[in-house]
Design brief:
five-stranded mixed sheet; Rossmann fold; nine-stranded mixed sheet; 37% helix; alpha+beta; BirA Bifunctional Protein, domain 2; 2 domains
Length: 401
């Protein structure tokens, strides 16, 4: 039907649209306070550009332009920002702290909480590879959740190189793929079968078997350091310990939990990864991590770390917590009668912060009152020359103000 929207997109009606804008203003203020400058990238890019990033071809909405170029709606913002930095920020002093609030598009989003068009807010810290930079981005994500009002959130941290270090000890490439697939799908029953069938060293088998249950704080790092016999995995644990140290200084311990079973796109992320969760939400609110190889694909070798937060998911969490949109401005309907006094009154009330609607249909007084009530107005001002009669529609039946 012509009145239907395509699957995976939606309308924002006035209250939701206003709430979205209010949240964006709060998020934008936090980004600004932390020194992250906002950038805007095109809604679509060359498909070859998008294809260098983290999104699979199946997730990308593609189309041809009149010249036959294959274009794609952006499935994320990190890749366009990497392209922007490589082409527009050459020679700029590092680090670069960039932020964004925009819409992204993905095909085949059939899961709950996943739309084909959705809105993201996020940051990229580019040019620094330190544990302090990783900690800053995690701390900024925590501050964002705190400032927007998310209650009892938790941030889970993992490390790509720790898992890579363990898999490198497995001599069978097929077994490595099966182990990785089992963790990505959280198929821990299947994992046990793969480990039984594969020639995996005993110490690796033991760690992988226990990894899904090894959640906690700094003690998890200390325990794993005594078990791991891999330079790559040990280096990842050392890096994670340093990140945790910086987060501890920021008093974020209550919000942080380690989860070394967390896997993402291993071709994209190269170090620390994290996800932010709220209670009773079946998917993450925000996700991010370190990706040091992406900008090199655009000819600009620079380390980077960042995260993205789903705005509709945030709104859903806040609504479930009972948080409502901030009150709308007082809504005033002005029936102008005759003369210009109504225009001056409208300007005066708008300057005072009211939302003012002026009758442009030449309604009668009775029709004006009915129209204002039907439109959800709070007050009606009947203007006759320089005389104003006020009607308060917030009171039953409407009463003079």
């Amino acid at each position: 039907m012509r009145t239907q929207t395509p699957q995976g997109v939606k309308d924002f009606l006035p209250d939701d649209a206003r709430w979205k804008v209010q949240l964006e203003q709060c998020i934008r203020a936090v980004f600004t306070q932390w020194g992250y400058g906002e950038v805007l990238t095109p809604s679509f890019e060359l498909f070859a550009t998008v294809n260098l990033g983290d999104s699979s071809d199946a997730q990308t909405l593609k189309f041809l332009d009149r010249d036959g170029q294959l274009l794609a709606l952006r499935p994320d913002v990190t890749t366009p920002i990497a392209r922007m930095v490589a082409t527009r920020f050459r020679g700029i002093k590092q680090p670069l702290r960039l932020s964004y609030l925009t819409n992204v598009f993905r095909a085949g989003q059939d899961e709950v909480g996943r739309e084909r068009e959705f809105f993201q807010a996020g940051v990229e810290c580019i040019g620094v590879s330190s544990a302090m930079a990783d900690a800053e981005v995690v701390a900024l994500a925590a501050e964002l959740l705190r400032q927007t009002g998310v209650e009892q959130f938790q941030i889970s941290l993992g490390h790509v190189q720790f898992f890579n270090g363990l898999l490198a000890e497995c001599p069978d490439p097929e077994a490595r793929q099966q182990i990785r697939r089992a963790f990505l799908r959280q198929d821990y029953v299947g994992l046990q079968g793969v480990l039984r069938r594969s020639a995996v060293p005993q110490w690796v088998r033991s760690i992988l078997r226990d990894l899904p249950r090894s959640h906690g704080g700094r003690e998890v790092v200390e325990q794993l350091q005594t078990l791991v016999d891999s330079e790559v995995a040990q280096a990842a644990l050392t890096n994670m310990d340093a990140i945790l140290g910086h987060l501890q200084v920021r008093s974020l311990d209550p919000y942080i939990s380690l989860d070394f079973s967390m896997l993402k796109s291993l071709d994209y992320y190269t170090g620390m990864v994290f996800e932010g969760y709220a209670p009773n939400l079946g998917f993450s609110l925000c996700t991010g991590g370190r990706y040091d190889n992406l900008l090199g694909q655009f000819g600009s070798e620079r380390p980077a770390v960042g995260f993205a937060l789903g705005l509709e998911r945030l709104m859903g969490v806040l609504a479930a917590q009972g948080q409502a949109v901030a009150p709308a401005p007082r809504r005033v309907f002005i029936w102008p009668g005759h003369g210009s006094h109504a225009l001056h009154l409208a300007a005066e009330r708008r300057r005072a912060g009211d939302a003012v609607v002026l009758d442009i249909e030449n309604l009668s007084r009775t029709e004006a009152a009915a129209s204002a009530r039907a439109s959800g107005m709070d007050q009606v001002a009947f203007v006759e020359d320089d005389k104003v009669d006020w009607l308060d529609l917030t009171k039953e039946g409407g009463q003079p103000c």
